[in-house]
Amino acid sequence: MTLSEKDTLYNWHPYTQHKTAFPHPVIIKGQGALLWDEHGKEYVDAIASWWVNPFGHSNTFIAKAIYAQLTQLEHVLFGGFTHEPVIQLSEKLSQILPSSQKKFFYSDNGSTAVEVALKCALQYFYNKGEKRTKIIAFENAFHGDTFGAMAASGISFFTDAFQGSLLEVVRIPVPTVGNEEKAIKALEDLVKTEEYVAFIFEPLVQGAAGMVMYSATVLDQLIAIAKKHQVFTIADEVMTGFGKTGKNFACDYLEQQPDMMCLSKALTGGTIPMAITSFTKEIYDGFYDDDTNKALFHGHTFTANPTGCAAALAAIQLLETEEMQENINQVHQQHLAFAERIKTHHKVASTRVLGVIFALEIKLEGEHDYYGPLRNKLYSFFIENGVIMRPVGNIIYILPPYIITDVQLEKIYTTIEKALASI
């Protein structure tokens, strides 16, 4: 029995209808922006393995930091204890995050980072004796798959089965070009009611919606409106954080600062699952009380895992190097050049670029399902041609490791051009 056959026998993969899915390629090795399967076939990882590997696969600098930590202290409970790596990491985060972020709560993944933020927003007002129970989010948002994060998400097939079991979330339009005033008016009308605890958003780029982009100027306006009415703002930087947008964080483009930030994915350079929710001191102080019941009773077994913290410290060190910043700019420039080259193609409706993120919308008639025939055809085409990409409906996007070479990027671009010719 092959490894692929054994995988089919035992494993249940995410976002997969196994009755109609093809057998999954078995990846056995990775190096830089490349992966190899059990048959020796080479793939360019055009999406950094779901946006988590900005410094490439098998990065020796991060691996050495992990090994050194494993041989000193692999894990210790964070309830009632602490350790040096988490103190160093929190100190480093306080230096590179917006200055509003003062306290750091550790968890396991992007969904749990969002879950912590939502729980804190709700409990903050509960601790004060105020009855606020609702959340504001954008249409077509995606914030994760745990119940709170899922409630805040707006892509229906992710949540349809759970309607009636979720937090109450009211959605406003995404402030893309032409929709700015609609979004502003919708938010203004909601926050006046004093029923809402938080406004959660993916800053500047909605990832799972197909890399939908909007301006920092309008987000600044929305944050200011929320703050004026004591509605907390939650920046979900799980996808955008750690260099993806061309700055360390998408919030670095803003003049307003969020009350909370959610971090994960690239946090540890794609090595160890870990997440962080950061807070203003005001929110922390809402739980700081002689009454034990006002504490945040939330935790995870591997909270602030020392090995994960060591990986994150190494990843941030890499991010801050001049070489990595040059790499990010080089990818950005290559994307801009490709956008210019492809924009007049008769099957291209639009392109958009921010930092290392490139997205292309295919011009086709009618509606196209998120996981519909077009998407599946494109996905299979890319895999067959040695490029790992996960199109969203009729949108193709690239979000590669920062260390990708010009030759590897060109392979991605030419494969997209071939894919357009095939449909």
From TrEMBL:
Q: Which HAMAP family match?
A: BioA
Co-factor requirement = pyridoxal 5'-phosphate
Under Enzyme Commission nomenclature, its number is: 2.6.1.62
Protein's UniProt name: Adenosylmethionine-8-amino-7-oxononanoate aminotransferase
Q: What does this protein do?
A: Catalyzes the transfer of the alpha-amino group from S-adenosyl-L-methionine (SAM) to 7-keto-8-aminopelargonic acid (KAPA) to form 7,8-diaminopelargonic acid (DAPA). It is the only aminotransferase known to utilize SAM as an amino donor.
Q: Which domain of life is it from?
A: Bacteria
Keyword Kinase annotated: no
Per its UniProt record, what Gene3D superfamilies does this chain match?
Aspartate Aminotransferase, domain 1, Type I PLP-dependent aspartate aminotransferase-like (Major domain)
